[in-house]
Amino acid sequence: MNSVVSYFSQTEGYQAIVKTLSELLGFDATSLVAFIVFGAVVTIVVTVLATIGGLGTYAERKISADLQMRQGPNRVGPFGILQFLADGVKMILKEDIVPRQADRFLFNISPLLCLLGVFASLAVVPFSSGFTLVNLNVGIIYLLGVASIVGIGIFLGGYSSNSKWSMLGGMRGASQIISYEIPVTLSILAAVVIVGGLSFGAATEAQGGLPHQWLIFHNPFTFIAFFVLFIGSLAEANRAPFDLPEAESELVSGYHTEFTGMKFAFFALAEYIEVFVLCGVASALFLGGYKVPFDLGTGAIFSEKLGLHPMLAKNIGQLLQLGAFFTKALLLYYVVIWIRWTLPRLRVDHLMVLCWKYLTPIALFNLVGVAVWMYAFDGQSFFALIAKMGAAAGGHH
Amino acid sequence: MFGSTLFIISALLTLGGAFMVVASKNLVHACVFLLASLFGVAGLYATLGADFLAAIQLVVYAGGVVILMLFAIMLTGGSQDLSNKYGLNKIPGMGSVRTYIAGGLSALVISLVVLKILANVIKSAQVGELPEFTTTVEKIGTMLLTDHILAFEISSILLLGALIGAAVISRPRKG
Amino acid sequence: MMTLASYLFISFALFAAGVAVIIARKNIIAMLLGIELMLNAAALNFAAYTRFLNNNYEGHIMSLFIIVIAAAEAAVGLAIVIRFFQIRDSIHVDDATQLQS
Q1: Looking at the structure, do residues A181 and A41 belong to the same domain, yes or no?
Q2: Contact exists between B and C (3 or more beta carbon pairs < 8 Å)
Q3: Which of A208, A335, B23, B31 has the lowest CB atom count within 10 Å?
Q4: Chain A residues touching residue B135 (CB < 8 angstroms)
Q5: For residue B95, what is the nearest residue in chain C, using CA coordinates?
Q6: Mind giving me the DSSP string for A297-345?
Q7: What is the per-residue pLDDT across B4-16, written as a single tens digit (0 to 9) for each?
Q8: A38 is in which domain, residue-wise?
Q9: DSSP label at residue A28
Q10: Against a cut of 0.80, is the pTM above it?
C-alpha cells in the first residue's frame, strides 16, 4: 500500500506485532494493525497541523507587531507563545450565538465544511518520502478538488448568516475562489507536464535537493508559473492583499461577521491551516519539497560512513526530510504574512481584472511554453543545458 | 475490508444525499445535499478502481458546478422567494401519502422489470481482477489521445462554445 | 457486497431521485439539480460496467465525457436561468410561456 503504513511496516517491530496479534485474535491482523497505525498517524498529523494553525495566529500577530515597531502578544508564556491557547480557551467560553433569522442548518455546517476541506487536503501533502499520509496517484487533482470545499463553506457561511456584510463577503469569496482556481490549476499543470505524473511523490522525486535542481529553476516558464501559483494561492486562501471576503474596513469582518465562539475559531483555524497547506504544495511542486541536498534524505550515507543501523539511518533521513519540508513551507508562510502587513487591499474589480486579464493569460502562455520547452530540449533543465554547452565548448579547445 | 467499508459509506452518502435533494424544501439545502451525493459518487468511483474519475468528479462538481448553482440561486433572489407573479407561491407538495405510495409502487415495478432484463448481464458479470493501486491516468490519457481523439477535440470545442455562450447569454443587454 | 447489482441499484436510485426532482419542482435551478443527479447515475453505470464486464477502461472515457457535458450543461443552463430572471423576474417554469401558442 502506497502510504505511510508501508514505511512503518519495514520495521521489525511492526512485523512482530502483526504476528502476535494474529495469533492472539485468531485471524490475519495485517489490515487491523495497518488501520490502527494509519489512524494514529492521522491523529498526529491533524494535531500537529492544528497546532501550526494556532501558532500561525501567534506568528501573524508577532510579525505584524515587528513590522509596525510594536510588542505584540507577550503575556502568556515565554514571549507570549501560548497566546493561541489563551485565545482558544476564550473562544470555547464564549456564548454560541445563532442569529434568529439565520439558516440554522447551514449556519452550523459551514465552519465544518471549511475544516473538512482543509483536513481532507492534508491527506496528500508530502511531509517526507515516508511520511505522506497517502501518496495518491491523482493527489494533485484530489487536492484541487477538496480545497474548493473551503470556498463552499465560506459562501454558505456568508449566505446563512442573513446579514448584508456576510452575504457580500460570501459572494466575494466564492467568486474569487472559483476565478483564481483557473490560473492556479494551469500553473500546477505546468509542473505536471515536466514531472509526468499527478502525485506529489512523483513531483518531489523529480527534483533534487539543491536549488538548481528545483522545478522553479527548470526553465523560465516554470519560474513565472511559481509566482502565478503563489499569487493565486494567496487569493484562494483569502489572504491579504486579496482578503476581500473579510475586508474589515468595508464589511465589518465579512463572511464570519455573525459567527462567535468555536464556529469563528473553526473558520480562523481553517484559514491558517489552508495557508500552510498551500505553502507546502507550492514548495513540494516547485521548491524541491522534502528533498535534502546531497541525498542525505535517504539515510544511506549515515549507515555507510557512520556505521549506524540501516533503519536508524533511514529514520534520521526522514527527520531531515521533514525538516527540509517544514523549513520551506514555513519560510513561504512568513512571506505570506509579510505580504499581508505590507500591501494594501485590492478593489473587487481590480481583483477580477488581475485574475482574468493578467494571471490567466500568463498561465496559459506558460503552459504552452513549458510544453514547447519539453519538446524542444527533451525535458532538460536550463542549468543542464548550460552545463552541456559548457562541456561542448570545453571540448573544442 | 477497507474497500467494502468505503463502499458502504459512499453508497449511504449517495443515496441519502439524493433522497434529501428530493425531500428538502429549501433550494440551498438541496444544493448542499447534492454536493454530498456527488461526493458519494466520487467514493463509488474510487471503489471501482477509477481513481482519475473520482478526482475529476471532485474537481468538477465541488469546485465548479455546485458553486455555480449556489451563485445562480443567489443571483435569482435566493431560496426563499419561490413565488411567481401568478400567485403560485409554494412548491407543489411532496408530502402527500398518496404520492409516496404511488411513487414507491411504480419504482418497484420499474426496478423489477429492469432487473429482469439485466439478470443475464448481472449473472455473467465477474469481478475483473484489477491490479491493486495501479493508475488509470496513463491509460485514460493514452486512450483519449489515440482512439478517442475526435471525441476529445469535439468536447473541447463544446466546452469553448459553452464558455462563450454562457458569457454572451448572461450579459445584460444595454439600451 | 460490491457486486454489479448493487452499483446498478445505486445508479437506479440516483436516476429515480433526479426524475422525482424534475417532476416535483417548478423551480428551474432545482430541475437543473435533478439533471445533474441523472447524469451522474449514467456515468456511474458506465464505470461499473467497465469494472465488472470488460476491464478495458472504455467506460471511464465515456464517464469522463459525461462529466464534461454535465459541466457545459450546467454553465449554459444557469446562464439561461439568470437571463430569464433578468427578463421575467422569476425562475419558475410556469413563467416561461412566451413560446407557447
Answers
A1: no
A2: yes
A3: A335
A4: 137-138, 198
A5: C24
A6: GG-HHHHHHS---HHHHHHHHHHHHHHHHHHHHHHHHHHHHHHHTTSPP
A7: 788 888 899 899 9
A8: 1-93
A9: -
A10: yes
